[in-house]
Amino acid sequence: MKIEAVLRRSHPVIKHFLRQSGLSLQRKIIGKIAASCNRMSSNARNGGEEGTIMNGSSLMTEVLLITPLAKYLPNWSAVEDPMVSYFENFQQWPQDAVQNLKRGADFLSSPKPHLVAFPTETVYGLGADATRWGCVRRIYWAKNRPADNPLIVHIASLKQLSDLTGKPLPAIYEPLVKKFWPGPLTIILPLPNPSPFAPEVNNNLKTFGVRMPATPLARLLVALSGKPIAAPSANTSKRPSTTTAQHVLEDLNGRVDVILDGGPCGVGVESTVVDGTCDPPAILRPGGIGIEDVRALGGEWKKTVVGYNDVKKHEDANGVGPRAPGMKYKHYAPKGAVYLIPAGTPESDVEHTLRQKLQKTASPAHLTIGLIRTSGSWSKWLRCEADPLNTNGLFQPMQASTIFPAAEGIYGHLDDSNFRFYDMQLGPSVEAVAQDIFAALRACDELSCDLIMIEALREGVSAEANALTIAVMNRLRKATMG
Ligand code: TXA
Ligand code: MG
Predict the structure, then answer these.
(1) Confidence at 328, pLDDT banded by 50, 70, 90
(2) How far is the CA of 424 from the centre of ligand 1 (A)?
(3) 11 has a pLDDT exceeding 60
(4) Residue of 187, 182, 198, 205 lying closest to 81 (CA atoms)
(5) Distances from the Cα of 470 to the Cα of 67, 269, 421, 456, angstroms
(6) Is ligand 1 within 6 A of the CB of residue 266?
(7) Which residue of 244, 278, 408, 412 has the fewest CB atoms within a 10 Å radius of its CB?
């Protein structure tokens, strides 16, 4: 049995203790031990030649810290090439972190098909050389990703992009890229003929998605590798995206060669995907850059429409699916049943709903409930310490972030021997909710929550709504879809 799995199954209190006593280091060690044990049972690592798809967990995953480098890297503008700064300055940077980043880059450019997970400002990416099919196929294998869901290519500089396409950027994209790159924006471009990418990158589409991440660590990694890097979110398909190296390890240990640990991601939800190759232009996936931000660019962009549907499951009445293939899949889903409670619902109604759901459950006494609060308007435990849920009223407040250090603001549990109630407060700012929402959904899995009640964000009139609010609600609706 994998050591990781044993750890994951251990009681939350043991895990709490482990976390308090320096979890991230222990995790790294445990990850390495577990991965080496896996490796001992398989010698497939060296069988990883181009084109070989491996079965089962068989790589040794290294977790390498690059966070200390972050404060030395400037926020290069879109027209700058990170390599110039690198050549000028790397000797003054912390050498361990430089070597770790270089190791990640070497893996990406090595003749063998390697995978490297790395931090971006949105979520962690699972990267591989986009030009080689053996590398790209391995991404699908590691994530268990449906074959028809194309990948986003990550680039370090505009020059790298024009070298790949052999053309200048289409004129319509100039204002968009000028304003939002580097940043949480993916643009859809016509696929050059012949394509510089492995066919698995764009899966028979005549277009490809590309983005220049804002995180200097990610940009420098791509630049050092000298390759365009295909990178979906670094999670197992259908699970919430990953926003810490620890979450990547949980999902992909033994399936990725290197995880570069650059600390928690800043934005927390994936990039906005924008298609300007069609008329009118469309937002294919909502993210931190909103439709109003795009429309404000004027010209053709004024006509931008919403090209996704987060209310319906797969197809509209005419059998037409979403234009970003990834948007049709169930996503972001923890194992427990998720209930989205409308914003502004009074606390007493939430408690009433909870009671009703408990009544319908066969053995409510053994249930574990996760409550994810976002606005700060409901009180902790919905005041359940007053024993309205037939618990003993045991109330053990814990300090913020002692249970989940990666997700500040997640804390505490109400516990008796039969019944557990975990409370997580993410807000009140929408930025804070976005940053920790995936961590909270993952925490619900770790805590084996059977029932997860989430306080929806207030969306308001949609045109005026905050872009991140729309993006978070899009992910939460998908988490509730069966
Ligand atoms: O923030 C992000 O975008 C992260 C980080 C790692 O960069 N990446 C990410 O990748 O979220 P992924 O693979 O999880 O989501 C990519 C989305 C999918 O919904 C996919 O269907 C869509 O982009 N997509 C990719 N290429 C496309 C294309 N040519 N046309 C339409 N949609 C495309
Ligand atoms: Mg994804």
Answers:
(1) low
(2) 29
(3) no
(4) 182
(5) 30, 11, 28, 11
(6) no
(7) 278
Amino acid at 178: K
In angstroms, the CA 290 to CA 162 distance is 26
Spatial strand order of the sheet with 152-154 comes to 62-65, 258-261, 116-119, 124-129, 229-230, 152-154, 207-211, 185-190, 272-275, 282-285, 305-306
Handedness of CA 469, 472, 476, 477 (dihedral sign): positive
Rounded Cα distance, 45 and 425, in Å:
42
Contact 183, 168 (CB under 8 A): no
- What is the percent of the chain where pLDDT is above 70? 73
CB neighbours (10 Å) of residue 265? 27
Q: Which two tokens stand for residue 463?
A: 């045109």
Answer whether 152 contacts ligand 1 (Cβ < 6 A). yes
pLDDT value of position 133: 95
Structure-block tokens of residue 49: 């030649």
209: pLDDT strictly greater than 70:
yes
Q: What share of the chain is helix, strand, coil (3-state, %, to 5)?
A: 40, 15, 45
What's the whole-number mean pLDDT along residues 151-174? Answer: 97
Residue among 123, 152, 200, 217 whose CB has most ligand 1 atoms within 8 A, to mutate: 152
Ligand 1 atom at minimum distance from 152 CA: 25
> Taking a C-beta distance cutoff of 8 angstroms, is the pair 449, 371 a contact?
no
Please check the confidence at residue 5 and state whether its pLDDT lies above 80.
Answer: no
For the CA of 145, the closest atom of ligand 1 is: 13
d(C-alpha 426, C-alpha 352), whole Å: 22
Whole-number Å distance between alpha carbons of 347 and 378 = 6
- Cα(331) to centroid(ligand 2), Å: 8
Q: 396: which DSSP letter?
A: B
pLDDT of residue 446: 85
pLDDT digit string, tens, across residues 280-321: 999 999 999 999 999 999 999 999 999 998 765 555 445 555
How many CB atoms are closer than 10 A to CB 279? 9
Contact 326, 469 (CB under 8 A): no
Q: How far is it, in rounded angstroms, from Cα 347 to Cα 19?
A: 31
